[in-house]
Every structure is written in C-alpha cells, then in structure tokens.
Design a protein that fits this description.
The chain is α/β, with parallel strands linked by helices. α10 (about 330-345) crosses α25 and α11 crosses α18 (about 445-475).
C-alpha cells in the first residue's frame, strides 16, 4: 500500500510537493517520488510489498509521442492472469509489480481497465496523448481517494491532510459539515469530505480531468438486483469456493504476512485458510489478537457481546497450528491514542474503537508489513442484529444510528434553524433505499434485506473501511480484507434471506460453507463485535478530560455544541448509543474530545 497525491492545471511549487509528500510518509515509508512536467505533478510514497526493488513510482511508460505516468495505491489480486493476457497482447513488462500491470491494463483497455481488476486500489494516470488525468477507485471502497477542483486546477490525495498542504485549500467547514459531524459522524455521506469543497471519489467510480472540461466522473460498478437461480447446495459450494479463492489470492506478498484473529467466525475462516495454504508451502502462519488490561475482571456479557475472545483464540490457534501474538492495550494508552487517531483519520472518528486499532496495528507492524482482516463479512452475509431483528428491519432509518433526535440536542440552536436534523438524515436514508429495484418473486423480507445491504454497504461499511485504512496505514501496515472481494459481494447480494440466515443463525450460510475449516465451537459461536474496553477507568479518564474542556470554556466546539448539554452528558443516565453498540456513553464523550482536538489541531474555520 502507499500514499498518492497530485495536481493538474498549474505548476506546483516543489517545496509544496515535498510538504505534501511528507504528510504521506507514514503510508509509504519505503520510497518517495515526485514527477513534474509542465502543469502536472504526481507524488508517491511507497510501502513496498511486491517486487521490492523494481516497483518504484511514479512509474512512466513512453512510446513515440505518448507518455503515461501512474501513481497507484493498492493490491491487484488477479495479477498473474492479467500479466499473461497483456504479454499475449504484445506488452513488454519489465517488473513483477502490480503497478505496472495497472498501467499496462490502462494502455490496453483505457477506462475499461477497471473492469478487469480484482483488488483494492486508488490510482491516477496522466496521459500525455489526451492531456488528461484518469483516476479510479476500487469497487468496494477499501482504498481512499480525496479530491478538490478549483480555479481550473484538480488536486487529489489519499488523505485529506495532504490536500490541506496546498496554500489555497483551507480547513474550512460550513453548515452541511456540522450536520455531518453531529448527525452522521463518525460516518460520512458517500463522496463527502466534510471539509468545504473536498470530496471523495465514491467506490466503484472513475473519472477524467482535463483543464478545458473539468472533472467528469462515472460509476463503473454497482450491486445489481437480479434473481438468484442456484440451488441451496450450489450456493453453499459457490460461497465456499469464492471465500477460499479470495483468501488464497490475498496471501501473495514478498514481506511477512499475518492474520487478525479474534476467535470469531470471520477472522477464524481467514486464519484457517491461510494456515492451510502456508502448510502447503512449508510455512507457519502467525496470527495477531487484541485484548485489554483487566478485561476479564470488568467484562459483563450482553446480548450484543455474549462472551470474551480469549478462549476461542486459543482454541483456533491449536486447531490450525498457528503462532499467536496477543497484544494487550491499557487504558492510559487508549485515551492518549484518541488524538493520534484523529490525525490518522483527519476527522473525529469512532473514539476508542479507532484508537485501539491504531495501537494494535502499531504493534503488528513490528511483526510484519501485511495482515488479513475479517471486515465486511457482516455487511455482505447479513450478520448484524439489525438484519435479523424483524422489528428493527421494519423501522425506517439507519439501523445503527436511531439517535438523530438525541444527537440534535447537542447542536446550538442557530444550526438547527439551518435545516431540520431529522429531515437531513432521513433524506439520505431515502435516497439510498430508493436505489434498490424490485425483482421477480421478491418477498418483502428479501427486498428489505437488499435495502439493508445497500445501507450497510454505502454507509456503515465505509466507516469501518475508513477506520481500517487510516489506523493501519498510520504505521505503514497494509491490511487486506478478503471478504471485500467484489465477486463475493455480487453473488451474496441476491441470495435469498432465508439462505443467508440458514438454520436461523446469523451468517448461517457462511457457517455452513465453512464446514471442516474450523472447530464447531468456533464455527457456531454467536457473533461478538470488535472488542472494546470495559474498564471503568476509561469512562473516568475521558470524562475528566471533557470536564476540563468545559471548565476552560474556550474550545472551538462551543461554536457548534451546547456547553450545558455536554455537562449533562457527563451525568446523564438516559444517554443513548451514538453509533450503534460500538459507541455508547464512554465513546460519545470521547467523540467530543476528538472533535475538540480536530478543530484545534487542524485550525478549522467555520464559514
């Protein structure tokens, strides 16, 4: 993985390009590159994973009057097949890197190159023949691509902080930004960068920029509503084949690789397949797990988190013969890292859910450069409680954020006069579910599950993928997500709900497909979310920090948030979840700490 940036339309001062490059150093610590010609600048910071010696960027191809130059962030998992096709078509390839494969795929197929790529990617290619920039982002949205267009100039970068290095791009927010932060955050409206005039290329979209016509983008991929024609037996077999193939492909690496392992279904499947493939190569898999100091002492079982991970982690490692590395996070670390997590994400985030992952990834980086993680299985296979609870399914609105009225209580009155908060959120919900089209023999449940899938796919899953990319790349760790293979998403989208929920168990179809891969006690374990601390010292620590901010009374958040409502939050027994069960009262308090740090550190201006 890497960091990419650039601008088209005016000469970029070299010292500005260097400042932009410096902000990407964490994403790409192994090699730097700046390519400039006339009014085009391309910038790259490389994390070397494949063909360490030869995959340098920006990478250039020239022939006759035409030159094409690429900056690319990602991994292409069907590189061997594309290499063979390109060689058969007469392309002369000089490296083993997937960067060269992406560049030559563009030379072969133009903008349709994205249809041939299986992987996670964000890239930009300057084509001198048409004097334009082609950009693209992967189908699922694993890799980021932010941009802004102004004064006949186009700027892009992997992270917002890189764009803010340019003198004309200010850290400015407006009323819409405030509604995003307070009513949607830590999620974001698809394509919205929160900072004024900063956007994000949406998953499954590509675009062209040239100075005369500006930036034009189009969607090249989306989930399609269509009947499912396979039998149940065929469906189970296909899921098993797709999941195994996706994991197998994503084990390619010229640097050490490990897997996340929580002892839950998703990470256990990845680890079991990886361990099996490693045994074929005479290698031993390393797995990594996270826990919190004194977690056993303070853990209390709930409907959403019925048990702790420790025993299941040990059982899985014994079963697959892996070597486990257990990383323990303490409360003071977790609180301190809240603010680093903001600087990694460039926005307030998921509080300690972010900061714990940042600390976890920092330790993993000491073991290797690449890791596999189980994100997105719940969105694709229907694992969350809101898929399975009929009452929640029938309820309109984002199921993980049924708290708009509660959130709006914190807003200063002048912002609520701008627009009705409930209407703001509901409009975004309605626009998303309207994308689902009826298909023959639809049942109400099947239609509603597809709506829930779209909601999760475009909103909740993107928040988790943002978190995974920023927290891992902050330490130069590449994290791959095999369940995000677009073939799995396409196939599962139209599988009937009663099969996804096979045997009345969450992700029953995936559990059935995993027969023989895992011990049954792990395969049939009830879903448990990403672990968070239960130590009361965490609530005490974040409460004290917020109390200090309220007492000082000078924080820029008071331009957005009611001071007395924050005071009430510290003692409020009726407090609601801010963002599903991942963000309850301690995380809500921490979210306001992150908002405070963000506005101060980024010198955010309202207006």
């Amino acid at each position: 993985m890497c960091g990419i940036a650039g601008m088209v339309g005016a000469a970029c001062p070299y010292d500005t390009a260097q400042k932009m490059l410096a902000t990407m150093q964490r994403r790409g610590p192994d090699q730097k590159g700046i390519w400039q010609k006339d009014d085009v600048t391309l910038i790259h910071a490389r994390l070397a994973v494949i063909d360490l010696a030869h995959g340098l960027q920006p990478m250039e191809w020239s022939e006759a009057e035409r030159t094409c130059t690429i900056v690319y962030n990602g991994e292409i998992y069907n590189t061997p097949e594309l290499r063979r096709i390109l060689l058969e078509h007469g392309h002369r390839l000089k490296t083993q890197s997937d960067t060269e494969i992406v560049l030559h795929s563009y030379l072969e197929w133009g903008e349709d190159c994205v249809l041939h790529l299986n992987g996670i990617f964000a890239f930009a290619i300057w084509d001198s023949a048409c004097h334009s920039l082609f950009v693209a982002r992967d189908r699922i949205g694993v890799k980021p691509f932010f941009f802004t267009e102004r004064n006949q100039q186009f700027f892009f970068a992997s992270e917002i902080k890189t764009l803010l290095c340019y003198p004309d791009i200010a850290p400015r927010i407006n009323a819409d930004s405030i509604f995003e932060l307070m009513l949607i955050g830590p999620g974001r409206t698809p394509g919205y960068g929160v900072f004024k005039d900063i956007q994000e290329l949406r998953p499954g979209w590509c675009g062209w920029y040239d100075k005369k016509r500006g930036f034009a983008q189009k969607q090249y991929w989306k989930l399609i509503d269509q009947p499912h024609t396979d039998s149940l037996e065929q469906t189970i077999a296909t899921v098993r084949e797709l999941v195994y193939d996706s994991v197998r492909r994503q084990l390619v690496s010229d640097v050490p690789l490990c897997t996340f392992l929580s002892g839950g279904l998703d990470s256990s499947i990845l680890s079991a397949i990886a361990a099996q493939e490693y045994r074929k190569r005479g290698k031993k898999l390393h797995t990594v797990s996270v826990t919190y100091r004194d977690n056993r002492k303070y853990f209390q079982a709930t409907h959403f988190q019925p048990n702790t991970d420790d025993d299941f982690i040990a059982r899985m490692n014994d079963a697959i013969g892996a070597e486990n590395h257990l990383i323990t996070i303490d409360t003071p670390q977790l609180v301190e890292a809240l603010f680093e997590a903001v600087e990694a994400r460039d926005l307030p985030g998921m509080a300690d859910v972010d900061s714990s992952l940042l600390l976890f990834c920092r330790e993993i980086k000491k073991l290797g450069t690449v890791a596999l993680s189980g994100e997105c299985a719940d969105e694709i296979f229907g694992g969350y409680p809101w898929y399975r609870d009929a009452d929640v399914r029938r309820r309109a609105g984002f199921p993980w954020a049924q708290s708009t009225a509660y959130r709006a209580e914190f807003l200063r009155d002048e912002w609520k006069q701008y627009r009705d908060p409930l209407q703001y959120v509901d409009q975004k919900y309605q626009e998303t579910v309207a994308q689902v089209q009826p298909i023959a023999h639809d049942t109400p449940d099947d239609r509603r599950i597809r709506e829930m899938t779209q909601l999760n796919f475009q909103w909740f899953m993107q928040t988790l993928l943002d978190r995974k990319d920023r927290m891992s790349m902050y330490s130069g760790l590449e994290v791959r997500v095999p369940f995000c293979d677009h073939r799995i998403a396409e196939y599962l989208y139209h599988v009937p709900w009663q099969w996804k929920d096979l045997n009345g168990v969450e992700k029953g179809l995936l559990r059935e497909a995993a027969q023989g891969w895992l011990p049954d006690e792990v395969r049939l374990r009830k879903k448990s979310p990403y672990p968070k601390t239960h130590n009361p010292a965490y609530l005490k620590a974040v409460s004290e920090l917020l109390r200090q901010i309220i007492g000082e009374g000078t924080s820029p958040i008071f331009d957005i948030v009611k001071r007395d409502r924050l005071e009430q939050l510290l003692t409020d027994s009726r407090a609601q979840p801010w963002y599903g069960q991942l963000m309850t009262t301690p995380q809500t308090i921490a979210y306001f700490l992150q908002l405070h740090h963000w506005m101060k550190t980024y010198h955010v201006v309202i207006g």
